[in-house]
TrEMBL record, chains A, B:
The keyword Transmembrane helix does not apply. It holds the Pfam family Response_reg. Residues 143-208 form the HTH luxR-type domain. Gene3D superfamilies: 3.40.50.2300. This is Response regulator transcription factor. Residues 4-122 form the Response regulatory domain. The keyword Metal-binding does not apply. The modification 4-aspartylphosphate is found at residue 57. Keywords: DNA-binding, Phosphoprotein. CDD domains: LuxR_C_like (cd06170), REC_NarL-like (cd17535).
Length: 212, 212
DNA sequence: TTCAAATACCGGATTTTTCCGGTGTTTATT
DNA sequence: AATAAACACCGGAAAAATCCGGTATTTGAA
């Protein structure tokens, strides 16, 4: 019996191509394809037989990688989820692993290695590629394991601060005193561990707290 | 006779999958695959019969999309180049079209539409997808058509400025006076049309002058 | 050889940002 | 009823960034 695979990726061309490729592997078949997390969950609900492994991209519209992984872990605990992403930054990897992924594969993996990885995940429950194994330990040592929690006002301020505006301009846009703005700035500097507005803006982008 | 395709993309899994897909199209065959621009050029030089169309990703290590397109336009004028990217921001599209691409396709295109696009490029020399046609005119109206040309020192400074460092720290890293640094800052503010360091950093990222 | 562009630098003023240590209200939770 | 967290705000000072108008050398192209 073939190993059943599900895929969620918003790049349609990649999704269909990859599906083709996997189908060409001897022991695998693709049972569900989706362009985002929500579509995946809907299609899953309609299936009688669930996939063994679901490949999930980190960045997707409507419902992103981490959210999708969490949902699957909750509703289909028997299904193994594997992150498949081109991003290899700490935050992407961490957010997926934290959500409950069994492996983190990069899109520039070679097809043969990819097949091997899928087989290993099916058999052992995990896969130790260069990236996930080596970096994972380092990541666990680091402080940024705790998720950064921002309040609503902080989020609004942060988005506005990622711009060419002065704090004075931001204050008037938010109908607040400059001193209040300064409070949010202070608080965000601490949470993001930076010393300057530029650093804050860049960290915010890296951590996907704002989008460019 | 089949239409010969070349592909350059640094995501190996995508590259091989796409190659598979194209091979499955009735009228197409893949004659060259490469993980970056330089590899593509090397492999091209070794061929007797050149591809009709080469698909090129925007972001690649070693030699990126625009540079590769320029080289091909120069050395193989009979070969049509097509950008194939997931990025649909103005700067990516512009830089590829300016380099000489005949079309700009997004990776979230549907395989059938993709096949149609390739056929159209082969027959008419171009393809009008939603993105390229609609946005292209708008792009041409805009000011940012002029490429932003930075000097070497400006580039080095800009990369360092996209950080949590102070100018003083940057100055010492570059073994320059703070006043010299201030000169580069001034010049970059003009070229990027911003009023603050944060604005500068964000513009730099948007315009792909620095990578996060 | 002359000209433009890139490089490196300075004084001095102004604005913005950053930092410090505070106050007080509202709102939800225990 | 007590506590915590989020929200909104202040004075004052120090540091950093921004702006202005300069100079001088080098280097390659016209």
């Amino acid at each position: 019996m073939k190993i059943r695979i599900g895929i969620a990726d918003d790049q349609q061309l990649f999704l269909r191509s990859l599906s083709n490729l996997i189908t060409s592997f001897k022991d695998f078949e693709v049972v569900v394809e989706a362009l985002n997390g929500l579509e995946l969950l809907k299609k899953l609900a309609a299936l009688n037989v669930y996939p063994d492994i679901i490949l999930i991209d980190v960045q997707m519209p409507v419902m992103d990688g981490p959210a999708t992984v969490k949902e699957i872990a909750l509703n289909y605990p028997a299904v193994t989820t594997v992150a498949l992403s081109m991003k290899e930054d700490d935050y992407s990897i961490l957010s997926m692993l934290r959500a409950g992924c069994s492996a983190y594969l990069l899109k520039d993996i070679h097809p043969q290695e990819f097949e091997r990885a899928l087989t290993e995940v099916k058999n052992t429950g995990y896969y130790n590629g260069d990236v996930s194994s080596v970096n994972y330990r380092r990541l666990l040592r680091r402080q940024d394991i705790e998720e950064i929690k921002l309040t609503e006002r902080e989020k609004t301020f942060l988005k506005l601060a990622c711009s060419d505006f002065t704090y004075k301009e931001i204050a008037s846009k938010m109908f607040l005193s400059e001193k209040t703005i300064d409070g949010y700035r202070e608080s965000l500097f601490q949470k993001l561990n930076v010393k300057s507005r530029t650093g804050m803006a860049l960290e915010a982008i890296k951590k996907n707290l704002v989008t460019l």
